[in-house]
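Example record

The entry below shows one chain as it appears in the dataset: sequence first, then structure tokens.
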Amino acid sequence: MKKRLMKPLLLLLAAAVISAVAMFGCSDGGGGTANSLSLTFTNFQPADYVIGQADFTSGDANQGGSADADTLSWLYGNPVVHNGILYLPDYGNSRVLGFNTIPASNGASADFVLGQPDFTTTGYNLTRDGMKRPQSVSVDNGKFFLTDFRNGRVTIYNTVPTAGPGSPDVVVGQPDFTTDNEDPADSGLDSPEASIAVDGKLIVTDSDNNRVLIWNTIPTVNGTGADIVLGQGDLDHTTVNDDDQDDSEDVTPTARTLSFPSGVWSDGVKLVVLDYDNNRVLIWNTFPTVSFTPAEVVLGQEDFTHNARNDDDQDGVEDATSSARTLYWPFDGVFCLNNQLFVADYGNNRVLIWNTFPTTNFAPADVVLGQADFTYNSENDADQDGSGDGTPSTTTLYGPTGIFVVGSQLIVADCNNFRYLIYDAQ
């Protein structure tokens, strides 16, 4: 009798969990169900480890010398951890560094490199194995995805690489691995900033075309065109903030227009896009299934028609200081886990954390990293006097651009300090 009752009970419990994830909006980061325990971070929390620099006070590209296994040069886009391996995009060196374990000491050296034949070569190439300014990386269902920014493409590895230099199997955005054009048709990409694959879908921010492209199934043939476009009414339009689709910019944005979208995150249910030049974050509570679907929630602005940076009073003019609900060029870095939303607020030199997934416009963040409170926004300002100190520290940031959360650790790409920071939750 108990066995007969168990199955209906389990089905009811499963339905409740699925309903909760749909309502609150974050999976476990890998397409699975999130647990309900959020991570604890505090304002101005110091990082625990640094990658790309020997210590927390150094901040030169390639540590002031040549590239090697322990150096970095410019960083854009989210990193990823898969099967314990950490993959770090190294934009300036046109490569991705692979660490077989997440470093637990400063200045760790990578174990392998993708996109280059060795750790000291940094030239970019328009070839199958080459890269030209790679940005975000992601993993879904055993495949590895890389946004190759300057080559105008996203490359797909059918097997997640665990050694270099690595060879992708499929390319989208271009017809083949040796072509780079900026054709704005359905199969073309122009300066894609970020990509993520989840739940069998591929999502790409086609930034200079002011749109987000969605493939309903992971492409298996080079040059496959997208199925859905956001930010434009169809795949032939590319103008910034063009709600009436007359190929000229409108006076204000709307819930369905974009201006250089950069970061993207999804769990297959919800969709979050960083709308960089509109100084806002757009949220779709239900994954879009038709083109030009309007967003349902906006962060950084009180409504969908405002777009000034750091405009807390919403008078259309930038305020003297930032606040817990304003944004200044949110760029590339966005991640959600266990109901927490993490956003890289590039222009304010900080990472914002919402401990509960936002459901209302202009919702204030709960925690800030890189600054002591929400009103400060200078780069590398350890003493919080409102001006940069000249050198970084354990608590400061200078243009964060990438975010990933794994276990109890937050990994942040600190772009202009040429380093990745690892924060342990408290």
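Notes for this example: The CA atoms of residues 239 and 422 lie 38 Å apart. Confidence is low (pLDDT under 50) at residues 1-24, 28-35.
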